[in-house]
Amino acid sequence: MIPATGEAKVQATTDGAIVFDAAAAARAGGERFEPAWFDPEHWRARGLATEHGGGRGGVLRVRVGDDEWLLRHYHRGGMVARVLGDRYLWNGAERTRGFSEFHLLAELARRGLAVPDPIAARYRRSGVHYRADLITHYIAPAQTLAERLRAGAIDPATAARVGAGIAEFHAAGAYHADLNAHNVLLDPRRVWLVDFDRGALRAPAKSWQLANLARLRRSLVKLGAARDNEQAFDRECWQPLMAAYERDLGRVGAHTAAGRSGP
């Protein structure tokens, strides 16, 4: 799989490997992808970095010529984080967290879905463990659904946009392992999904699709969307979201099936 923006290349490093979009590397000024470009301090020292919340440990937004990238280092969550921190069990290069997400994003972008283009992914191996990083394009201008909620800017029309956007992903079999209000972005034209760590392409099925939506609902409720009036939340947000989702899931799914069947 290759990014929508160009050719994917793999280069060896002293302790692992990097997969990268060759066109993005060229725009940054190199035929190879410099390992230092994964280092936040490289960009901070040059005044090209902006702290950008999101995910465990946060991410860093950096300016690279006319481009903007997001740098993310993979961190474990839950109880295991106390033991392993940012280390993962080695099980082959293509199964590392960064390489897996890079290739999935590239395929989703190739299919025309609204995801950030992958720039590069890296693993650094040490014995039976490895550490991983990912760089993607920064999506601008866009706000997360959580930011919209805090600003009181989620109305029935916005909720319907979100439902229709998620339906497009689900009809394509795009499974998101952590569909929450921080990982849904809206710009004036599209609804984007970000952070596809542990995501996958699956056969469309109600079981995982509804579980995805239930996770999103829990996220909105946890952030206070139903704090004052749960009935109002259902009426003005969740019901419009689900109505648009169900409508567009059937429409997109039928169109996809027609395309596969041919004339």
Task: Determine the number of helices (DSSP H or I, runs of at least 4 residues).
Answer: 8
Beta-strand content: 15-25%
**Overall pLDDT metric:** 92
The domain tally reads 2
Q: Tell me about the biggest sheet? A: 8 strands, antiparallel
Which percent bin holds the helix content? 25-40%
SSE topology string: EEHHEEEHEHEEEHHEEEEHH
Distance between the termini: 28 Å
The total strand number stands at 13
* Poorly predicted sequence stretches spanning 5 or more consecutive residues: none
Q: Which structural class should the secondary elements be placed in?
A: alpha+beta
Shape: globular
What's the gyration radius in Å?
Answer: 19 Å
Write the layout of secondary structure elements.
Elements: E1 8-12, E2 16-21, H1 22-27, H2 40-44, E3 49-52, E4 59-64, E5 67-73, H3 81-84, E6 88-89, H4 97-110, E7 118-126, E8 129-137, E9 143-144, H5 145-150, H6 156-171, E10 174-175, E11 184-186, E12 191-193, E13 200-201, H7 206-222, H8 230-261
Antiparallel strand pairs: 1-2, 2-7, 3-4, 4-5, 5-8, 6-8, 7-8, 9-11, 10-13, 11-12
Helix pairs in contact: 6-8
